[in-house]
Amino acid sequence: MNKFHSNYMITMEDIVGEGNDILHRPTLEVMVPPSEEDKETLTSMMNFLKNSQDPILSKKYKLRGGVGLSANQIGLNKRMFVAYFTDEREKEHEYTLINPKIISHSVSMIYLPPSEGCLSVDRDINGFVPRYERIKVKGFNLEGEEIILKLNGYSSIVIQHEIDHLNGIMFYDRINKDNPFKLPENCKSLY
Length: 191
Known about the structure:
Layout (H helix, E strand, L loop, with lengths): L35 H17 L2 H6 L7 E3 L9 E7 L5 E14 L3 E3 L19 E2 L1 E7 L5 E7 L1 H13 L20 E3 L2
């Protein structure tokens, strides 16, 4: 039976920490259309994000606020994630993506000041994380339909962070090791 059924409430105890090997290797593709189990897991993951952003529920259940959650962050070796956030233009975004891949991207890059954060990383990490300013992503939704998303700005940053998780890459792997605040020439601040 699936632990993460649609009525299961994911808490911080379910979130895998950065030392776990599952976060440092690529995930396996998911069958499309997704199984009922995968659909329920994704629903439970989305509920976690929404709960984590609710001031009352996040305090009651001690949830750290999150904008994205990949399956390997709850210990599942599956290429799927959810994202729920408001961008820099106050537009709300809600995505459930299965087997996502970036199919094109801009040359220009951006970074989120002062740095990115992660539900699996329970410490402050200083440094800029360069990301593509614009991306086009192909994947499948909860119904198994192919979708293509064109994203820019904060949306692009969030989705690249989650796709990195599915590829076994942590956000701090993208920070310049010699100079954490050094950026490529074509990179500017989001704000």
